[in-house]
Amino acid sequence: MVLRVSPCRDRAELEAAFSAIGQYLGVEPTDERLARLTRVLPVARMHAAREGRATVGGAGAYPFRMTVPGAVVAAAGTTIVGVYPTHRRRGVLSAMMKAQLEDFHARGEVLAALFASEESIYGRFGYGVAGRVGEIALPREGASFAAAFEPEGQVRILEAAEAAKSLPKVYASVQPNVPGMFERSRDWWESRLLSDAPERRGGGGPKRFAVLEQRGRCVGYAIYRHHMKWDSGVASGRLEVIEAIALDGRPTAELWRYLLDIDWVGNVTCSLLPIDHPLFFLLAQPRRMKFRVGDGLWARLVDVGAALSARSYALDGSVVFEIDDPLCPWNAGRWCLSDGVAKRTRRAPELACDVGALGSAYLGGFTWSELCRGGRVHELKRGALGRADGLFRAERQPWCPEMF
């Protein structure tokens, strides 16, 4: 039978497409779950692969506004991608990825991003690792700070209704300054961050919402849950930090001091910390965090010219790229980036790479020299790597605090 890929037209089609990945994760597409999903992912942003009347795959995309160095761009958050086990290795995923990218391009979304369930999948569709994240498991006895201080702010525990008003203000203050973070709508906050379905608690307690205030202003917040445990009559539970975001400097230090001082906790865990988190300098014994590094956000340029022209650059100068992009032929070829604008050119190329390597460098998380040493970029003119490194340098490491 002929394989067809097209956007879903109604909830029933979305449910069938969702089940392509949902069955692997053991997630049932209940009316409540689908209602929550469609608040942030319009039905038409879910592509379904069909063979005859049967749905055999699905791929979705959240419409985002995402921070890149010096700007915020229209982006797509690729998500809920899966193929039914009956149709593996038949080109279903490739067909969905191609249709999805063409849809992104038609919508004017210059960038696509995702968190990869498996690292080997998305490179062949033009996505490159754009940032790293850290995971910690910090014992309570190793949580002392290198320099003590008296707190200037006060932490309050909030119910979800009040958290819905306070937490987004802090996030909106931080998000424009960190590449990889995306704007969150009210629906996003309510359906994802503030919702707390019992089946998603992993055996822990309910979400707790805490806000740090200084002189009447919200400057930080934390979302966390307790996983209580007792060993020989002694509390040895775990505090799971789901998200902790604060303004730079003192607010970040005070928020983490609060989290690390919570009673009846054996250790504190967090799985999505930025690679350049201040805890490395706040803690007296940073090794005790057991900071484990993994890949975080992956990025894919949908429109090379528009994406390169949208972000800011650390220096003036130019570099000519030869870009390989079989899935999006409108990107392939030579591009000259000069004075912050990317245009087609006939000039001799200075760096050659595929679009995935360009995605790895785009947010500033990896240098062109690093990518060259890893065999992902070829320097065709001596000195081009150094110029590109200087141009693409960013003040902050890219970070997205939430898997989507």
Helix-strand layout with pairing:
Layout (H helix, E strand, L loop, with lengths): L2 E5 L3 H15 L5 H8 L7 E6 L2 E15 L2 E13 L8 H15 L4 E5 L12 E2 L2 E8 L14 E5 L1 H15 L11 H8 L14 E7 L2 E11 L2 E2 L2 E2 L2 E9 L3 H11 L6 E8 L4 H4 L9 E4 L1 E5 L2 H7 L7 E7 L8 E6 L2 E4 L6 E4 H8 L5 H6 L3 E3 L4 H9 L12
Parallel strand pairs: 4-5, 13-14, 17-20
Antiparallel strand pairs: 1-2, 2-3, 3-4, 5-16, 6-16, 7-14, 7-15, 8-9, 9-10, 10-13, 11-12, 17-18, 18-19, 20-21
Nutshell version of this structure?
With 404 residues, the chain is of the alpha+beta class. It contains eleven helices and 21 strands.
What do you see in this structure?
- There is one protein chain.
- This protein is an alpha+beta fold and 404 residues long.
- Helix content is 26%, strand content 32%.
- The model has no long low-confidence stretch (mean pLDDT 97).
- Strands 1-2-3-4-5-16-6 form a 7-stranded mixed beta sheet.
- It has 11 helices and 21 strands.
- It folds into 3 domains: 3-109, Aminopeptidase (3-Layer(aba) Sandwich); 134-294, Gcn5-related N-acetyltransferase (GNAT) (Aminopeptidase, 3-Layer(aba) Sandwich); 304-392, SCP2 sterol-binding domain (Nonspecific Lipid-transfer Protein, Chain A).
- It is globular and about 70 Å long.
List keywords for this structure.
7-stranded mixed β-sheet; Nonspecific Lipid-transfer Protein, Chain A; single chain; 404 residues; 11 helices; alpha+beta; 3 domains; Aminopeptidase
Spatial gap, N to C terminus: 33 Å
Instruction: Say how many strands there are.
Output: 21
CATH homologous superfamily assignment of the largest domain: Gcn5-related N-acetyltransferase (GNAT)
Structural class: alpha+beta
CATH architecture of the largest domain: 3-Layer(aba) Sandwich
CA-atom Rg in angstroms? 23 Å
Shape: globular
Strand content: 25-35%
Number of helices: 11
Main sheet properties? 7 strands, mixed
